[in-house]
Amino acid sequence: MQFVAQQFAKYALAIALLIAFALLPEASQAVPRDANANNGAVLKLQAMVKRLSSERDAAVAENSGLAAEVEQLKREKADALAAKDSLSSELSVQKNTAEAVRNRLGSTESRLQDVSDKYAKTNSAKAELERELAALKAKQQGTEQQLKTCGQHNVKLYQAAEELLERYQNKGTFSGLLQDEPLLQFQSVDMQNIVQEYQDQLSAGRYSQEPPSSAEMH
Fold first, then answer.
1. Is the dihedral angle over the CA atoms 56, 59, 61, 67 positive or is it negative?
2. Which of 130, 140, 174, 201 lies in disulfide reach of 168, CB 3.0 to 4.6 Å?
3. What percentage of the chain exceeds 90 in pLDDT?
4. pLDDT at residue 80 above 80?
5. Which stretches within the chain are classed as H helix?
């Protein structure tokens, strides 16, 4: 724009000079001039005016181009600002999304840690229960073996006692012993009571590995 103003100033100056030379009276000149010299000055001024006119037209055209370029730059600037605002909004959304993702990730990691801790505790409790179960099984096997041995001993003792009672009832060797030993001689009724009581105790204390029948349970 400054360049265009300068061109217009030069053009106006040239026009003013041309008019001044055209109106200048010959009487006022100190030295008479030749008509050809006067015409030469006019031609120079006309050439200057023509050149300045061309420069003016070029400046006007350039100014129009610059104005169009300025408008284009304004539009590009507006588009750039709009794009910037859009990117800023998108960036803000992405930041919020990233923050939400980080929060979810933190929550998921916390829950995963809780599950891992519970899993470790459960495994530890399971291992402890398995050890206790193995110990109980071993103890059960030992107890069953002891019960089996005790049962065998109980049966043998029961059989021996039955045999002894049978001998007494048959008045065999045991009867002879009673007759030979004064300290072991009892009245017959008392001896029968003692034998019956002992037999009942043997029957009650006899060990059996078979489960009781339904009749015995009732």
1. negative
2. 174
3. 7
4. yes
5. 2-23, 35-169, 173-180, 188-205, 214-217
Instruction: Specify the DSSP class assigned to residue 210.
Output: S
Q: What number of other Cβ atoms are within 10 A of residue 14's Cβ? A: 19
Whole-Å CA distances, 41 to 109, 193, 218? 96, 179, 156
Q: Residue range 170-197: average pLDDT?
A: 56
String of DSSP letters for 11-65: HHHHHHHHHHHHH--GGG-SS---HHHHHHHHHHHHHHHHHHHHHHHHHHHHHHH
Contact 207, 150 (CB under 8 A): yes
Helix axes 188-205, 35-169, angle to 10 degrees: 160
pLDDT at residue 39 in the model: 74
